[in-house]
């Protein structure tokens, strides 16, 4: 079983190691900020917010570490207009097998 200390260790590693998020929109990657990172009993949640200035077809998200490596990717198919922002959640479930 992953202990509370183990979950906190992973949370701190992600919080201190992730630099930014990127989204692929109209064939180009755009940088977006990580809004917040939360820990629950069995998951770590990473929230990114895309503001109203970015519009178009979003086909992928990725999280980038401070050393420039891609930590996580997720394919999408979202058409975003400029009338409102978009909050996206990455949830990493923690389960020992």
- What characterizes the major β-sheet? 4 strands, antiparallel
Strand content: over 45%
Shape: elongated
Total number of beta strands:
7
N-to-C terminal Cα separation, in Å? 9 Å
Uncertain spans: none
In DSSP terms (H or I, runs of 4 or more residues), the helix count works out at 1
| Percentage of residues assigned to helices | 10-25%
The SSE string, one letter per element, is HEEEEEEE
Radius of gyration: 14 Å
Global mean pLDDT: 93
- State the strand order across the main sheet: 2-1-5-6
Structural class: mainly beta
Descriptive keywords:
58% strand, single chain, mainly beta, 4-stranded antiparallel β-sheet, 7 strands, 97 residues, 3-stranded antiparallel β-sheet
Provide structural commentary:
This protein is mostly beta strands and 97 residues long. Helix content is 14%, strand content 58%. It has a four-stranded antiparallel β-sheet with strand order 2-1-5-6. Strand 3 and strand 4 form a beta hairpin.
Structure summary:
The chain is mostly beta strands and 97 residues long.
What's the helix and strand layout?
Layout (H helix, E strand, L loop, with lengths): L3 H14 E8 L2 E5 L1 E6 L3 E8 L5 E10 L4 E11 L5 E8 L4
Antiparallel strand pairs: 1-2, 1-5, 3-4, 4-7, 5-6
